[in-house]
Amino acid sequence: MARTTGGPATPPGAGELRDRTRRLLAEHPPATTAPVDFLDARFDAGLAWVHFPAGLGGLDAPRALQPAVDAELDDAAAPGNDPRRIGIGLGMAAPTLLRYGTREQQERFLKPLWTGREVWCQLFSEPGAGSDLAALATRAVRDEDSGDWIVNGQKVWTSSAHLARWAILIARTDPDLPKHRGITYFVCDMTDPGVDVRPLRQITGEAEFNEVFLTDVRIPDAHRLGEVGDGWRVARTTLMNERVSIGGARLPREGGMIGPAAATWRERPELRTHDLHRRLLDLWVESEVARLTGERLRQQLAAGHPGPEGSGMKLTFARLNQAVSGLEVELLGDEGLLYSDWTMRRPEYVDFTGRDAGYRYLRSKGNSIEGGTSEVLLNIVAERVLGLPPEPRDDKDVAWKDLAR
Q1: Interatomic CA distance for residues 270 and 187, integer angstroms
Q2: Is 383 annotated as catalytic?
Q3: pLDDT tens-place string over residues 367-377
């Protein structure tokens, strides 16, 4: 299934984009227009993500011009689509649909995805194939009468599954092929009666993650992305975008974990020690370097497709979050041992900076697991960025059904 595009022969420049944005604001004043109606109008005007094709929320413009649109909208206090809540759709599903989806799939899914009407989740990880994702066992079998796919299996660590309308799903369609070559990529309807979502309570007390059981879930072939058996290649596009969206999010200076730690240092002079000062300065500099590196990574992304460098950014993100949150707890002393709320709830998104230091410390432990474990990402950086010899693998050419499990 190949991507199809259409749009103006000459992409608009920054000036024209600003003019389009001002017309949008004049025709749909944010103060008197319902937020979702404004987002609909913005998408239809091609100002959702300007680098996308015309008719799909964009204008075939350079990605680097998006800030010109965003600045006008911010100045007018226009409503946003809350990327924290729909980040999986924006950061993972949308780029994959853009690259591998048919025009019909793009037109069906992209607008409600971007406006937030439909939340997405990711059905990739499995209990028996954590770090080795390609060893997944969830099966999709073709129904010869209808052409649909019947899916059975279990997925785990699924953020937002309790909110999601759709899921990006990879399943094994040919167990006779080696593990990377017998996988197919689908869009799964989370309202199918065979989808059972169960909460996974975490060390924070919340259950933002879920496990998902799939029993005879029926997926039409029209919801397949890419060719049958080519799901690993499609999934790699998703995974590279996921790591950029996790590790390379745009932040202001002192954004993210370093902000609360620096604020505590400034506001609580009685907590300061020379050693904590030195360590905070080191982490502040590292955080700023990571932020600027993320800006460069996004510029590279604007020029083409994400690469394995996103794995390096995600590694840095996890290490820094854990180091900074640990320092913040230590800085607070006895106060750092307090935890405000163990209530079991199923949040809509992760809020690192809106909670206390104890929450940040506990939640950051998952950063080195989610979005690819740090150990796997180290291998990717070593092999695909640094060009080091790959680790010996004796299962690359063995049929999946013959692998020891």
Answers
A1: 54
A2: no
A3: 998 877 888 88
Residue 2's pLDDT is what?
Answer: 44
Percentage of residues in the chain having pLDDT higher than 70: 93
Collapsed DSSP state (helix, strand, coil) of residue 166: strand
Active-site residue (options: 72, 208, 242, 328) = 242
* Separation of alpha carbons 172 and 215, rounded Å: 15
Long-range interactions of 38-44: CB distance < 8 A, separation 24+: 38/78, 38/79, 39/79, 39/81, 39/114, 39/115, 39/116, 40/111, 40/115, 42/73, 42/78, 43/111, 43/114, 43/115
What is the CB neighbour count within 10 angstroms for residue 336?
20
**Beta-strand relationship, 149-155 and 120-123:** unpaired
Residue 142, burial from CB neighbour count under 10 angstroms (0-12, 13-18, 19+): middle
> Torsion angle of alpha carbons 48, 297, 283, 340, nearest 10°?
30
Long-range pairs, 40-43, Cβ under 8 A, ≥24: 40/111, 40/115, 42/73, 42/78, 43/111, 43/114, 43/115
Nearest to 155, CA basis, from 140, 175, 174: 140
> Can you tell me the distance from the alpha carbon of 373 to that of 276, in angstroms, rounded to the nearest whole number?
29
DSSP lists the bridge partners of residue 217 as: 151
Quick check: 137 and 183 in contact, CB under 8 A?
no
Digit-coded pLDDT (tens) for 337-383: 888 888 899 998 888 877 899 999 999 999 998 877 888 889 888 88
Question: 């984009």: which residue's tokens?
Answer: 17
What pLDDT digit, counting tens, does each position of 223-253 carry?
999 999 999 999 999 988 777 666 556 788 9
Report the alpha-carbon distance of residue 169 to residue 189 in Å, rounded.
10
Q: Report helix angle 14-27 to 35-44, nearest 10.
A: 140
